[in-house]
Design goal:
Elements: E1 2-3, E2 12-18, H1 22-31, E3 36-43, E4 46-52, H2 56-62, E5 67-74, H3 76-85, H4 87-103, E6 109-113, H5 117-129, H6 141-154, E7 159-167, E8 170-177, E9 190-194, E10 198-207, E11 209-210, E12 217-218, E13 223-226, E14 228-230, E15 237-240, E16 244-260, E17 262-280, E18 283-287, E19 296-305, E20 311-327, H7 330-346, E21 354-366, E22 369-381, E23 383-387
Parallel strand pairs: 6-8
Antiparallel strand pairs: 1-3, 2-4, 2-5, 3-4, 7-8, 9-13, 9-23, 10-12, 10-16, 11-13, 14-15, 16-22, 17-18, 17-20, 19-20, 21-22
């Protein structure tokens, strides 16, 4: 074995030589004035050598019956080869770097933190008027302060406090709504009545006289808590007040729901490929994808990203899939329809309200769908107020 210390920038090639008599070929190399930088004899018919890259073509001309296999490159040439091999990735990295520089000062999302949609819409419009909207450049701290004060000044009756904060490429707006001592609609003299039919399950009176009992059935408009207070004998009106209270009752709904029997089944075909994608916001763009799959599943790995920007470069492995139509059994479709119907009722329930009972009244198949009619018994608040318009004169209690 022979070794020469090399500079890391020297361009060399590593070769595997095979033939009948390796020593004879090595002598031929010496005579051709090709410098052998490293020799590693495996056996009399095989050796691994390293030479300068500039001597590679000369060696190929004298190899005759011997086989020469290139197994490695080092030095600047290796760097160039790796650069060429990964040129698309490097191009994406350069593009990504400059995009990050450019886009880091652009607003890509505006989050307004408030539960009232009207207030959110109001602030959204005010921000637009002042140049704060998606895909525009961010404002300086001083500019944000001026805009905040301007919006508050123009909406004194609606906004109590506001803060605009820039987090990366997102603008976060926090708001406090100005409360103008609004109270729910009441009348000087009123009854608490049922706004829908049901069986009373709970009554809490703050003022007035309860005239219905638990488990009483009431129809829409029936008085539950009366603002008219009678005397001890129940003959004369002692006082008329503004009745207040909460009433919960068992009410009923019937929901008709259709659910399709057909669904799509997706299976892998065994074909796969590797590619790069650029993700900007929620949109992904394939790079140099000349053989696109119609349907596929993907595994993604982030190559480059900036947490402050909605931009990523992804290395993606796609697996081709085939989609086939399948059919639910009626029993399977029924279970799914029941779940959707229940969710529909639950979405409209408020605090303390709940479903008491659920029962299917009927279900049947219609064309390629299951139709199910479901009955729901719901614990729900049913009180509302009604003004007492014709107020009779009060009479004094009888004196003995």
């Amino acid at each position: 074995m022979r070794n020469i210390v090399l500079n890391k920038f020297d361009n060399t090639v590593k070769l595997r030589i095979t033939g009948k008599n390796i020593d004879r070929f090595l002598n031929r190399i010496f005579k051709s004035k090709i410098e052998l930088l490293n020799i590693d004899k495996i056996n009399r018919k095989e050796a691994i050598i390293r030479i300068y890259e500039t001597d590679y073509e000369k060696l190929l001309k004298i190899k005759s019956i011997y086989e020469v296999e290139l197994i490695g490159i080092s030095g600047i040439s290796k760097f160039k080869k790796n650069l060429l091999k990964n040129k698309y990735l490097l191009l994406l990295l350069v593009i990504g770097y400059f995009l990050i520089l450019i886009l880091s000062n652009v607003i890509f999302d505006i989050q307004i933190i408030h539960s009232n949609s009207k207030i959110r819409n109001l602030v959204t419009e005010e921000l637009k008027k002042n140049g704060i909207k998606k895909y525009t450049f961010k404002k300086s701290f001083d500019e944000l302060e001026k805009i905040t004060n301007k919006i508050l000044e123009n909406n004194k009756d609606k906004l109590e406090w506001m803060e605009i904060e820039v987090v990366g490429t997102k603008v976060v707006v926090k708001i406090e709504e100005r409360k103008l001592n609004k109270t729910e609609k009441t009348y000087p003299k009123q009854n608490v009545v049922a706004k829908k039919s049901g069986i009373i399950k709970s009554i809490k009176s703050k003022e007035g006289v309860i005239v219905k009992n638990i488990n009483d059935y009431v129809s829409k408009g029936d008085i539950i808590i009366s603002g008219t207070i009678m005397d001890t004998y129940g003959e004369n009106i002692k006082d008329i007040v503004s009745a207040k209270g909460e009433v919960y009752a068992e009410v009923w709904y019937t929901v008709s729901m259709e659910y399709p029997l057909a669904h799509i089944n997706e299976t892998l075909t065994g074909k796969q490929k590797n590619l790069f994608k650029i993700q900007f916001l929620n949109k992904k763009i394939s790079v140099f994808d000349f053989n696109k799959y119609e349907n596929y599943q993907a595994e993604e790995k982030v190559v480059l990203e900036n947490k402050l920007l909605p931009f990523k470069i992804l290395r993606v492995k796609e697996y081709e899939t085939k989609k086939e139509d399948s059919v639910y059994l009626p029993e399977e479709a029924l279970i799914k329809a029941e779940k959707v119907a229940r969710e529909k009722i639950e979405d409209q329930l408020k605090e303390n309200e709940k479903i008491i009972k659920q029962k299917n009244l009927k279900f049947y198949q219609k064309d390629s769908k299951i139709v199910v009619e479901t009955f729901f018994s719901v614990y729900e608040r049913i009180d509302t107020t009604e003004e007492i318009k014709d107020i009779p004169e009060k009479k004094e209690d009888k004196k003995e």
